[in-house]
Amino acid sequence: MSTTPQGIHSLAFRVMRLCNPSFPVDPPFRVDPADLFFGEDMFDDPLLASNLSPLLSTHLSKSTDSSDMSFADRYLLHHPSDAMGFSGLLLLPQSFGAIYLGETFCSYISINNSSSFEVKDIIIKAEIQTERERILLLDTTKSPVGSIRAGGHYHFIVEHDVKELGAYTMVCTALYNDGGERKYLPQFFKFVVANPLSVRTKVRTVKETTYLEACIENQTKSNLYVDQVEFEPAPHWSVTILKADGLLHPADSLTAGEIVKPPILVRSGGGIHNYLYQIKLSSSGSEQVKSKRSNILGKLQITWRTNLGEPGRLQTQQILGIPWSCQEMELQVLEIPSLINLDSPFSLHLKLTNHTEREMGPFEVWLTQNSANEEKFVMINGLQTMVVSQVEAFGSTDFYLNLIATKLGVQRISGIMVFDTIEKRTFDPLPDVEIESNNEAKSKIIANLACVWSVQRRSFDIFYITCGWPPFSSDDPELCHYLLRRG
Amino acid sequence: MADPSATSDPLTNQFGSLNDLAHDLASLQDLAMLGSWRSILDKVSRARSLGLLSKPHDHLIYLSYNVLALTKLRRFTDASSDLDSLHDFNSHHYKYESYPQLYPSRSGSMVPFSLRFIHAQLPFNLGNRQEGLDRFYLLLSFIRRKIEEKGSNSLQESAKIWRKRENLVLHCLIGHHLGAKEFNVCLDLIRDLIDHDYLDPILISKLGYIQMQIGDIEGAKGSFHRVETMLNQGKNEGYSSLSEVEFRNLVNRNKALVYLVGKDYVSAVREYEECIERDHTDVVAVNNKALCLMYLRDLSDSIKVLENSLERVPTVALNETLVINLCKFEILCFLVCPMKLSCLWWFIQWRSLANYFGFAVG
């Protein structure tokens, strides 16, 4: 849309947005002579078929004769694929269309002298104006146009990478001499830039690995061919894209040089495509790095193509992971025995890690006593306090806690306390651990612990994965209770 | 051997001319080749009223031309009514064996296949796309049953023609799905054709155009490379019977598209010029070259290229796409006022250019 100024100007601008052309499609009413001259089952008779073939080829060759000035091509099929109505002719875009963030705005600008005399000393400028900035696209001051004869015209093509949403105005101006008078012609062309995609992310962390799920939604009016979606990790992180296996499209098994690999085409107006990334610390040994890392995971870089390969590119903002809490001392369970029997001592293998820059310890480790609302059935077997030596900066040490369970079934080990004897500080770094104590007479139950950080609560959720189950009798009250608890 | 009796089978004799197939068919055909659709309507109407059509197959062939002419004149509702007068294509009324006196020892359907094709195509022009698709898919199963039937009865020539019809319907379907931007369906249909060894270089090129349209440039390059390999290996299966010139031009045009998409318009123009040098009626090369010239800011040359082709080969060059492009160039060059073009735009919209412009240009 242009707002033409008042007053009489010799010059005028016309602009046309230059996006890629397209292939028009229109299946035509065109026939094969064999489908028109006689009945469809005519060729059942081989004698007839041989009689008719020369007649048909005469008429087909007439239609393909390029010196023939008839309208045969609009009536007869020249080649079978003519029926598709898609010849490879390119058509210029019929309207301005929609323009999206990340695309390149390209425009043809034509300036015409509609007066009957020459126009001189012309300076032409084209500028893009948005809410935030003004960008000069064209300025002929340095390479002057000079003059335009009566009825003459000049052409330019300008380009601008669209990086801002909202309203844009392209201002074309011409400063010129019109029979001694210096005139100024501004013309304004407005358009709006919309957002082509929305990207939603979800982050989950399992132990040392963070998973990022990204969902890309197409908000444009046309299908988007997704060229590339790349996750650029922040420093010290490495990323692997995870794809579903075993879902190969048959075309994937075509040999090299074969064609028709199914494209990732996201349909218009709300179609989505999902990506899953696995993100890990690349320098795994460095405790220093671990303690300093922020929760910035990285950015998604998305490139797509629309009509005839028209490219677009966007980058998301930094995607954040779960905030890393800076624990000074971390206690981890390394191993729990697979079989824990009632009233029999067992060892809990623990590792104490120092995430600070200075040496810490020595430490004392104990279990807290029974509290009013909780009776404990797992306790330290032997000396109630264990001494653990100093741990150097960013170092770790492992030790065994000798425990005993005094009740059958699933029991908690809770309240493992770590006390720094020098700094006189207590760390409470290990949430409850569940174990299962069995009657020794029963056969083995193999238990695995899986710990998952919950995104919302940041606490351990612990569940068992149990393989195998012993024969049991329903008159064992402890076992029944356990089974009921397990639901 | 001609049967001397009065009820001799009119279709067993040698066919020297079209008139042996149906009453005055040669004249109908000539009119169609000239695009004289109104004259065809007149001729059919006269033949019917004067009782010149003595045999059932004559009526059917005349009906086919009538319906086709109506579609060409964009009288789709009339065409549909005319077709509906047949009620059921598979009726025994349209079988040779129902008229043993007229067609002794002949059996099968005397319905020209184009009637079934037009019947499936018409709903699209009447705004009922779903009906059209249903009809085409039903037609496709009908054709496939026929192919099986002919195959099991060892009717090889007949099976061959029915396979050609299967191809026609598949191509129509691809076109209709493409028009609705159902690209994945198109790719599946084309893949299906190629998997069944239908290796037509034009089809594979069109696959490339579709891949390009959706933005899969690498896929398109792969398809074009395949076509070029077929040219270099001298492979041109019987499907498309491309001449040497047509094949070479196809390869050049494909190359030009890759340059165009890569914004190397100079190389694209060079490819198209090679095509035009070889065949000045290659209107796709002419049109697309003009577009490239525009991207090179050479709008005056764009206009010249299109106007020249309209003058030299009007019947080939005169198509909606080319004329719309030319109008846009002329508007940009201030050669035409948009308001004065309103009539032209109207004509373009109604696509009756072929009938109204004829040979007059410039």
Task: Give the helix/strand class of chain B.
Answer: mainly alpha
Largest sheet of chain B: none
Q: Name the shape of chain A in a single word.
A: elongated
| Span between termini of chain A | 69 Å
Largest interface: A-B, 92 and 121 residues
Question: How would the global form of chain B be characterised?
Answer: globular
Report the count of strand segments of chain A: 32
Binned, the helix content of chain A reads: under 10%
Organism (chain B): Hibiscus sabdariffa (roselle)
InterPro entries (chain B): TPR-like_helical_dom_sf
Protein name (chain B): Trafficking protein particle complex subunit 12
Pfam family, one (chain A): TRAPPC13_N
Notes on the structure:
Chain B: This is Trafficking protein particle complex subunit 12. Chain B: InterPro entries: TPR-like_helical_dom_sf. Chain A: This is Trafficking protein particle complex subunit 13. Chain A: Residues 197-318 form the Trafficking protein particle complex subunit 13 middle domain. The complex is a heterodimer of chains A (487) and B (362). Helices cover 7% and strands 45% of the residues of chain A. Chain A has helices at residues 46-64, 287-292, 477-486; strands at 2-3, 11-17, 99-100, 104-113, 119-129, 134-139, 146-148, 153-161, 166-178, 181-194, 197-206, 209-218, 224-233, 237-242, 265-266, 272-281, 296-305, 311-315, 319-320, 329-335, 340-341, 345-354, 363-367, 378-380, 385-388, 396-405, 409-413, 416-420, 425-430, 433-438, 446-453, 460-467. The longest helix of chain A has 19 residues, at 46-64. Chain B is an all-alpha fold. Chain B is 67% helix and 0% strand. Chain B has 18 helices and no strands. Chain B has helices at residues 25-34, 37-49, 56-72, 76-84, 113-125, 129-152, 156-179, 183-195, 201-214, 217-232, 244-261, 265-278, 283-295, 299-312, 314-317, 320-332, 342-350, 353-357. The chains are: A mainly beta (487), B mainly alpha (362). At the A-B interface, strand 2, helix 1, strand 4, strand 8 and strand 13 of A face helix 1, helix 3, helix 5, helix 7 and helix 8 of B.
